[in-house]
Specification:
Length: 182
């Protein structure tokens, strides 16, 4: 149950969990233009914001996401695949006073396309509805059903081929717009 809550907290609702990352340590990029505080472009109707800072080592970002009620911390990495930029987000271990509870949680990656134009950021995450559709059932991407969730179990190389092939399709249609706070 808690893993579902963590997955929902990823930058916006509608994320799809992946057991493996989209990036490799060799090709993770760093763009300083992503640093700063971002809020929904439609104003603060839900109070959603995220704060991006530098995480020590290997072109990584630390993202603190606030949804108006609570916050979550994530590590994010940027990767470019055939001219398309993607972000891979991975949750930090959620705090728990129960060690057994932490042992049973399986953190997962979530990824999507991003476009940065000045102080405007667009994020298009992998759509879980598309992934569960009949159309997507023909896509060779290993996944498993876990209760009401699809979890991608494909290896990083397969994820990269998938992301490259389907970058400009409805697969990445869970879109949100953000603006930098001044």
């Amino acid at each position: 149950m808690r893993m579902a809550i963590v997955a929902v907290a990823l930058l916006m609702a509608g994320c799809t969990a992946s057991l493996h990352p989209l990036y490799s340590e060799v090709d993770a990029l760093f763009d300083p233009m992503l640093l700063g505080t971002w809020r929904e472009s439609e104003g603060e109707k839900f109070g959603e914001k995220f704060f991006v800072s530098v995480r020590a080592g290997n072109a990584a970002y630390r993202v603190i996401y606030y949804d108006g009620e609570g916050s979550g911390a994530f590590t994010a990495r940027l990767v470019e695949l055939q001219g398309n930029r993607f972000v891979d987000v991975y949750p930090e271990t959620p705090p728990s006073k129960n060690g057994f509870d932490n042992y049973l949680l399986i953190p997962a990656h979530s990824f999507g396309r991003i476009w940065l134009a000045g102080d405007r950021l667009t994020i298009a995450l992998l759509d879980p509805d598309w992934l569960g559709s009949e159309q997507a059932s023909r896509v060779l991407l290993e996944r498993i059903a876990l209760d009401d969730y699809l979890v991608i179990s494909a290896a990083t190389a397969d994820l990269r081929r998938f992301a490259t092939k389907y970058a400009d399709t409805k697969a990445f249609s869970v879109t949100s717009e953000w603006v930098r706070e001044q």
